[in-house]
Specification:
The protein starts with a helix and ends with a helix. It has 4 helices and 4 strands, in the order αββαββαα. α1 packs antiparallel against α2 and α3 packs antiparallel against α4. Helices cover about 65% and strands about 5% of the residues. The longest helix is centred in the middle third of the chain and has 23 residues. β1 and β2 form a beta hairpin. It is flat and about 55 Å long. Strands 1-2 form a two-stranded antiparallel sheet. The chain has a two-stranded antiparallel sheet with strand order 3-4. The protein is mostly helical.
Length: about 130
């Protein structure tokens, strides 16, 4: 029974990702990955924006499942504060936002270099903080 909950959540997230891909506008040549998913909407909902929010939701669900399945005790890292997995996720997301903004200010687009730095930063936070 306990294995059904993560499998159900996995099916839910997979289905929602499939729905996002199905909502991507199409052109004569195929998918318009950067086109507006909701014409005239209040926010620029393109696939990368929607995928970003889907990914954040998936991370939150993953952290919840891990917290239930593998309870943890807070640990003290290089910041000398007690942190849990959720704290480290928040620290890495917040730091990654600043890395991306600094990259945009100094280097401009594209953001592939910022993405690589953010992944290294997040791995370091989860390892040492």
């Amino acid at each position: 029974m306990r294995a059904l909950v993560p499998l159900g959540l996995l099916a839910l997230m997979g289905g929602s990702l499939a729905a996002l891909v199905a909502a991507v506008p199409r052109t004569g040549d195929g998918f318009d990955w950067f086109g507006q998913m909701v014409e005239g909407g209040w926010m620029a909902w393109s696939f990368p924006v929607a995928f970003f929010f889907w990914l954040i939701g998936s991370l939150l669900i993953l952290m919840t499942v891990l917290a239930v399945k593998y309870p943890e005790t807070p640990r003290v890292g290089v910041l000398r504060i007690e942190t849990t997995r959720g704290d480290r996720l928040f620290i890495s997301l917040l730091g990654s936002a600043f890395i991306a903004l600094i990259w945009l200010g100094l280097m401009g687009t594209p953001l592939w270099g910022a993405l690589a730095l953010c992944l290294v930063y997040a791995a370091a936070v989860f390892r040492w903080v």
